[in-house]
Amino acid sequence: MASAAAPASRKPPVRSVRAMLAANDDVALLPVENPYLLAVGIMLASLLQILDTTIANVAIPHMQAALGATSDEISWVLTSYIVAVAIAMPITGWLADRVGSRRLFLFSVTGFVLSSMLCGMAQNVTQMVLFRALQGATGAFISPLSQAAMIDTNKPSRQSQMMAVWGMGIMAGPILGPVLGGYLTENWNWRSVFYVNVPLGIISLVIMAAELPSRKIVQRKFDITGFALVALTLTSIQMLLDRGNHIDWFQSTEAWIYAFLALSGAWVAIIHLVTAKEPLFNRHLFADPNYVFAVLFSLVIGIVMFATMALLPPMLQRLFGYGVIDTGESLMPRGVGTLITMQFSGFIMRRGFDPRILMAVGFMMAGLSLWEMASWSLDTDYNHIAISGFIQGIGMGLVFIPMNASAFATLSPALRTDGSSLLNLSRSIGSSIGISVVTSLLAHNLQVSHSDLAGHITASFTDLIDFSTLDRFQVLGDAVLRMVDAEVNRQAAMIAYIDDFYLMMWLSFVTVPLVAFMRKADLRTARPTDDVEDRGTAMADMPH
Fold first, then answer.
1. Residue 471 has what pLDDT?
2. What pTM, to 2 d.p., does this model score?
């Protein structure tokens, strides 16, 4: 009898217990009947919101002429949208708890579609700025809610795959925006840039109305003080970044006011976050090292990706003579590389590959592509541009999905909406900082390089032009000098672009060692590996 009882008392191996745990845990927080159909609706809404951050840029000159606006007035069309997004996005978590994530998501998409239609109908610049602000305020909730919904409605073993799908829209949007905006503007008019959101937004609404579940409503007190401080800080930062070039930065009093308000608001907001009983952002978010570093990396991605996308179209069109369609084609390999590696990274992570290695390789490849771009000249051909873009796309794709998956793998499901809003806000701020910094450095370095190059334009620099005789031929002489000055401007601009590429290269390389500070997470079950080991051992030691 003892021998017969022995097998019954034998402890199961830890591996089998871990498999049992994984099977029990592999259930979606909010199960749905058609997760893939729902993903289509969510992705449509997310893609439209991301597209609108860049799609209107190409139409600005046409918009300015049609609305009779000055260059300073028309700049508010972009600024109002960005500032509204920055103010509204931090309260996504509170609103989702207060009114329900489903209700807020449907309201957000509806408001975004209606405000897009109003933007297309605007008759003057005042209406356009107002409607763009409304578009930004309603659309601000789409990105964080879409990310949280993609995680909540899929089981842990499928979450990395869904994050890859979601990431494709986030990364492809800024690439497709200028191309689609240019095509619509050239073939129809600038109003079609906004009207295109209406039919696609309605399709998204129909799908989500049928399939989207909702989290439970939670009675949560609103931190009005924290919100006011965060809104003041973010608005001041965005206004400084967007208005900096127009007001000559810190040569004006306006810039100093923005800087003072941003620093004061940030300092008091941090104190309030630490001491408040119910702060705007749950403090448990900042106790998770994976999430904290994901926020930092999201900031870097925003700087590198969006700044590069802001630099390349004007560089290719002004210095290389590319048209809108040619520019789009030269940027497409970057998107192709991103799409490929997003699927690849999701595939191998589901098989237990360490996501930290993927992120480190991704940042390294992004830095190498920028190093290649820093060697460009005015004679660089299409192949070099396409290959370097493809490599950079591969790098960004390797970073984005493991970063998001690692951030949410160790985060409580109750914190996902708050966490998603802060993560998306970090990327948005990074893009604003990156675009502003590289644009300002470009203008400054262009002047410096022009001065340096002009100092070498002497009578001995070429045998083709005799400068001593130019004053005898007034019209012809002026034309020759303008031609020389134009070429000096082109060379100076190329040097300035190269300086920006070097800056982003070093930022990418410096980020690589920081990946080691994240904890390894087993993304097959969306739980920390060490935690699974401990629970498996504990259950194995229990009597059966």
1. 53
2. 0.75
